[in-house]
Amino acid sequence: MVKYSVLADTKKYIERFLIIRTKEGKEVPFRLNESQLRLYEVICAEEAKKKPIRIIILKSRQMGFSTLTEGIIYKKTATKKLINSLIITHKDEATSNLFNMSKLFYEKSPEWVRPMLKNSNAKELKFENPTKNPTEKKNRPGLKSKIKCTTAGGKGVGRSDTLNYIHMSEVAFWPGNILETYAGLMQAVPNTPGSMVIIESTANGFNAFKKMWDDAVVGRTDYIPLFFAWYEMQEYRMAYHGEEFTDEEKALQEAFQLDHEQIMWRRWCIANNCNNDLDMFKQEYPSTPEEAFLTTGDCVFKNKDDILLRIRALEEESCIRGQFTYKEKRIALDRIVLSDIQFWQDDKGEICIYKEPEKGVPYVIGGDTAGDGSDSFTAQVLDNRTGEQVARLKRAYDEDEYARQIYCLGQYYNFALLAVEINFTTHPIKVLEYLHYPKQYVREVFDTYTGATRKAFGFHTNGTTRPLLIAELVSYMKNSLHLIHDVETLREALTFIKNARGRAEAEVGEHDDLLMGLGIALMARGQQQVAIATSSSKVDKKNWTEDMWQDWRNASTKDREYLLAKWAKEGDEP
Hints:
Helices cover 38% and strands 20% of the residues. By secondary structure, it is α/β, with parallel strands linked by helices. It is elongated, with a radius of gyration of 30 Å.
């Protein structure tokens, strides 16, 4: 009964029977550390739900996840029949190390728990009867299970097998086409309870592993994303003798609740293991996922550390998510109005509201439309008194619905000034005009035919306005970082770089839709302030009738000033 209990419980099996080799070369019993235990508990939870186990791990170096994964795979393969397991690494040396680890598990475990083993020249353990006698083999075949270790980059890796368990190690460093190798492997794994795929890696810039991680984080795949920071390793400490800490170290200590010994280890590791390269340390030993995926180019925003700390601080904040519902009402042949506008809460909604609108407060909205490699329409809402971000929108959908959602968003925020980019499409602007949105950003356009200037709606990003927009963003990120509440916007800031030609743009494979929407909102703020200065504070627009709104929407800027003055004198009575 005791034997059965140990064989049935993976953790008990590992800690009772498996031997590992330490960094110092000593052979010791395998005891799970705190980080390994966290991973193990997630695996057990998925097993309890009868779900296929799919986990992706972003980690700091030398935390023991390969060791735990090999231990779990070894136990499951060495105690069950007809199991095929694969361990695939980024280079031959790592493949040999992990194979030798499994071999050590077998050699050092008690004889009564060791399955029959067939000799093999390849890096694999075949748990079957080694006899050449067909009768004996038929009567006592053994488990007919195997663990194979291989290196990524070879043609057709894993394609000929049906695999029950896969460990993909250091995926970010796999040679060749990472996604192609991954796709080939996954065709061999049944999507059934009991199967297990564990992907683990330290980061390696902005390659396929980052996409796999990002997809898991936002729920585009079934993988559970697990991040493990360097300070979770209890052994990453060094003696403290009263040394003075830098401002950066003090900020880290406060943000992550680090003790003095952890800061001293970090200082030592930067100097001795990372050649005093702080960016290298952050990639190899990250405190957050954002630190792990450092830009490979020159980040436009020089206060990356402050942005990372702000992201950390925002982990405790939440937003109200959803989208607007509305009805369309035709009041003339060429006129449709949106009515019954309501914000509908939805955990998967494209709009995040961080602060509800306040009566009488002026707001401005900057909108970035999809195009030129971008796949999202965005909008950023700022309180124009302070510049504080109060809401944002991001979703890939058609232009008509985008225009209607930002119409509703603008009305929700006291008919905010709407500044929508027109570089790739003018359709949202035309829809807003058709719906008679009362307050759009106006730019001056030079007419090459008449030689005169005319007014037009929308924001145009060009050789003149783009440098100014970037400068506004740089200043805002430096001086008003505390006013940003959206983590996704800040993540875009971390991957906004100067390319080889010096142009500011998103890192290859990344996006800047939210960032550009924020920049447009910042550029439009001045026009909103002018409108405030010429408006009467005595007018309460909430009492306006539909006729008053129709007069207002159809009026010029000068006529609107007249109407505001007129209705203020009349006590704003309809």
